Amino acid sequence: MTQLLAHIPVTLPLEDPILKFMLIMAIVLGAPLLLNRLKIPYLLGLIIAGAVIGPHGLNLVLRDSSIILSGTAGLLYIMFLSGLEMDMADFKRNGWRSLVFGLYTFSVPMLFGMLAGYYILGYSIYSSILLAGLFASQTLIAYPIVSRLGITRDKAVTIAVGGTIITDILALMVLTVIVGLSTGSADSAFWYRLGISVAVCVGVILFLFPVVGHWFFKRSSDSVSQYVFVLVMVFLGAYLAQLAGLEPIIGAFLAGLAMNRLIPRTSPLMNRIEFVGNAIFIPFFLIGVGMLIDYRAFFKNWETVEVSAVMIVLVTAAKYIAAVLTQKTFRLSRDQRTVIFGLSSAHVAATLAAVMVGYNVVLGHTPEGEPIRLLDEAILNGTILMILATCTVSTFATQRGAHNIALRGAQHDPEPGTGEHVLVPVSQMGTIADTVALGIALTKQKHRSVYALNAIDNRLDDPEVKKHAQKLLDTACSAAAAADIHLHRLLRYDVNIVNAILSVVRERNITDLVLELHEERASSPLNAALPGVLGTGTIPALGKNIPSVVAQCNVTTFVYRPAQPLPTVKRHLVAVPRKAELEAGFQAWLLRIRHLAHDTGARLIFYATEQTVGHLKSKRRRADIAEYVAWEKGWERLPELLGEIRPDDCIWIVMSRRDRISYHPAMSRIPAYLAEHFPANSYVLVFPVQAGDTEKMYFG
């Protein structure tokens, strides 16, 4: 055995890429399992593990180019996710709050840093200002904690993320200006170059990236290509920011904001982005940060200890004061203050960039020939120790505050079994993914059950029919699983599909029914278009079974004809009939459509009478950014309204049953009219719940 082991070439540090990767992945796997028992946040555990195996610890793994590359990708990933997962409606509404917090978390540390550097540590004014810039910058190293706990859309997180970008931009601007002034290169052309390059970079990312992304996602449905495209946009945004003189993390965050609306939170692509980031890139970044930590810096000389102590104490106090000021200004809870403090207290990326730039700027030489640096070695070593201390504080504070917020949110959730139950009957392979996506997007993520149903005639005994049905259900399950949603598959033998749907609706307490619109041609009364302003002729409309299902099934029903992927829709236009607010299902469909628009980030425009618009506005939430247009001309003039349709619009028509208060005879001609005049647009017919017994629909 000894002779066998003797032939295994193992040297330290490890050079075999297989052993290095295996060791790091073993740490990623084992750290959460061990540290959860010790009540230590796993992020901190990965940093500590990096310090242990790194060049200043056991020297098992060097911080070579592979670690730096993966770590850089992980840092950009964190910033990209923070922009991608941000609630844009809340960000637009609370943008000024982020600005105020950004100014707080920049100005307070800047003041502390300048006073400490000049009066306590005795540095020059330029070195003191640059030291203050180190204090002001911050890194969202604890963002994965709030992401895992599902509170990324909490007001405190939105404020902290937006404020981080503001303070990092200001801190890096301070770095650029101080280096320019200290080296004598800050002439008038310097300021013009800086301003123009930053403006061009921000404009390209925020305005050109969404156009390119919309074009790509509309034409490519391949999951691998979509993910690779996202990676390209992340690194392209980071590189453009670097060219503009900004830190790459700013570009990655802006790329996340630019792609926010194109990648809904419940989409399969979002699930892939989060999975790969949390499993590979982000752990590599945290382990790489740990490898920077040199505990021996404490014992080198007293100056290092003094500088480290001053930096750690003052930067923590400054960030806490900024969080307290933000809490008092906006009347936030204590847990929200803790989350803001936790997210803003860590110093890694921008801090490392700034200290390395300052360390490499040589202002002159001593009589002994030693270089006089803008930031000396004591600050360099102190920064490394500050990274360890602030990351520790950040992870513990964020874990505590986010955990309490998540618990408080869970107490307000509905009891299991009382949530939304969505049924999606599937029969056509080409529309399954789009129909399942709509069913998921319409409902909230918590306490949601999604069912896919395929019915087989119980008089048939053909194994090929069953095999085809299983294939349809497999496709539906794959579409839901890609979005990290568990889908219940139902294969049912019944006399017909209508009876099967009605039975499942009753058995499973279905609240929402999503039906795929079949492209069929028929001349039956169900599909024939009636003469009038909405058009004539025999064209695809509601298929064979939909009228029967809607007539007998009193749940909120969405009849969907997809023409393009849901995330690429730019506007949802909802036509609401007169007196729709008096129907029993008014609130249900309204909540579903608003949730979908909020999740996808698309514009939402309601067209209704002035009286109905008043009821729509009275039911809106604080985060509602929908637009309301008064339409008094009546449904017989609907073509005038639909004349405003654009290529990337989705049309929503709220229908009604015959003899109900919001019913209009022109509704019978709408399905045929949409199919004839808007073949390139997606559209949804919404059939609300009706009070009392179900009645025969208008298309009897």
* Rounded mean pLDDT score: 80
Radius of gyration: 30 Å
Indicate the percent of residues in helices.
Answer: 55-70%
Strand content: 5-15%
Regions with little confidence, pLDDT below 50 for 5+ residues: 521-541, 693-700
Termini separation comes to: 84 Å
**What shape does the CA trace take?**
elongated
Structural class comes to alpha/beta
Number of helices: 25
Give the spatial strand order of the biggest sheet. Answer: 5-4-3-6-7-12-11-8-9-10
Instruction: Specify the biggest β-sheet.
Output: 10 strands, mixed
Number of strands: 12
How would you describe this structure to a colleague?
The protein is α/β, with parallel strands linked by helices. The chain has 25 helices and 12 strands. The longest helix is centred in the middle third of the chain and has 35 residues, at 377-411. It is elongated and about 95 Å long. Helix 21 (546-552) links the parallel strand 6 (512-516) and strand 7. The strands form 2 sheets. Strands 5-4-3-6-7-12-11-8-9-10 form a 10-stranded mixed beta sheet, with helices on both faces. The chain has a two-stranded antiparallel ribbon with strand order 1-2. 57% of the residues lie in helices and 10% in strands.
Chart the SSEs and their pairings.
Blueprint: H1 2-6, H2 17-37, H3 42-53, H4 65-84, H5 88-93, H6 95-120, H7 125-136, H8 143-148, H9 155-183, H10 188-219, H11 223-243, H12 248-259, H13 268-292, H14 302-330, H15 334-345, H16 349-360, E1 362-365, E2 371-373, H17 377-411, E3 420-425, H18 432-441, E4 448-457, H19 463-481, E5 487-494, H20 497-507, E6 512-516, H21 546-552, E7 556-561, E8 571-575, H22 586-600, E9 603-608, H23 610-618, E10 627-630, H24 638-642, E11 649-654, H25 670-677, E12 682-687
Parallel strand pairs: 3-4, 3-6, 4-5, 6-7, 8-9, 8-11, 9-10, 11-12
Antiparallel strand pairs: 1-2, 7-12
